[in-house]
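Why do we bother with holo predictions? Because pocket geometry can differ from the apo form. Keep that in mind while you read this record for nicotinamide-adenine-dinucleotide.
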Amino acid sequence: MRALQWTGPETVAVNDIPVPEIGPNDLLLRVGAAGVCHSDLTLVNFPIRLREDPLTLGHEIAGTIEAVGSDVSGREIGERGLVYLFWTCGVCRECVSGNENVCLAAGRVAMPPCPGLTIEGGMAEYVRIPANTFVPIGDLDFLQAAPVADAALTAYHAIRGARDVLRPGGTAVAIGIGGLGHVAVQILRAVTGVRVIAVDVAKEKLELAADCGADLGILSDESTVAQILELTGGRGAEAVFDFVGVDATAKLAVETVAPNGAYRMVGIGGGAPEITAGPAGGPGWPWGATVRKSLGGTRSDLHACVALAQAGKLHMEVERFDLADGPEAFQRLDKGQIRGRAVLVP
Ligand code: NAD
Ligand code: ZN
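The structure, written out:
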């Protein structure tokens, strides 16, 4: 089969490799579509080769069951679904509490096993998955479904974790209206009554945000903080979701979050927010505000996202690429030229 693989620093290639074999508790999925996430780019651009063998990329996977492992019950060939991001132990106290994204087996700062980032992923004609990571999608279109597996899941989890402060009358800021951000705006509209302000460096991304239901769009420049403070009566926004995570956006978040507000780091651009324990009147951080570095989402979050998509409340803005043109999709994403999500079709 053909597979898009990471072959070393800054290189991806479409290679011919064997169709994966499955174990007794696995499914073989015929891939219908696989989304391209900025995290894929971060991995590909990593300056050191993390392993000898090429790695098949792709953690946003939708497809059809092609084969069922001998010990799997309740699944049938031909079922359509998507793949939960984290292939966790399933039995530790975090997993059984519904916090699979922080499974104990992953340790303190690592990430649970994830297809396409730490094990073979879904930018291929077929992928092996543990049967318990399959989530049915009914007749949802594969191009629409694939980004639900991460772009929607991760945005939903960050928003759900801040739900206490997302009350009508409040304001949420979404920074970075790419694959994750354009879905976040829609989720904020679907599940809360807050005013939504979108921030991006590119005018066309603010147009996308408006199409997704954002109330206001602000270009990211030296006046952004002042504009957000003015729009919120000097208080700041009850929640700031940073889908970029560089120094500039971390600073923006710290300077615009309201007292008791929620700053959520989702983008992993290496930015270092400055939060100090100074007295009243000090710079930046207001009383009572919380910060959380948010990873993916839980299985339950994924079911919620599939339900939102099936109810027609999420529309993925998708640019379709044949798997063979995957390297071009990566280049375009690197240049900030994708509107919404690039999705590969094998
Ligand atoms: P993307 O490339 O599709 O979108 C990024 C957007 O940010 C673009 O619209 C770009 O114009 C905008 N942007 C760039 N610099 C900016 C700045 N300084 N100010 C404002 N906007 C800016 O990326 P994506 O796939 O949506 O991923 C977003 C981030 O989230 C990445 O860092 C990715 O690795 C990370 N991510 C994290 C998790 C998690 O679990 N925490 C999951 C998936 C993705
Ligand atoms: Zn991702």
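The radius of gyration is 20 Å.
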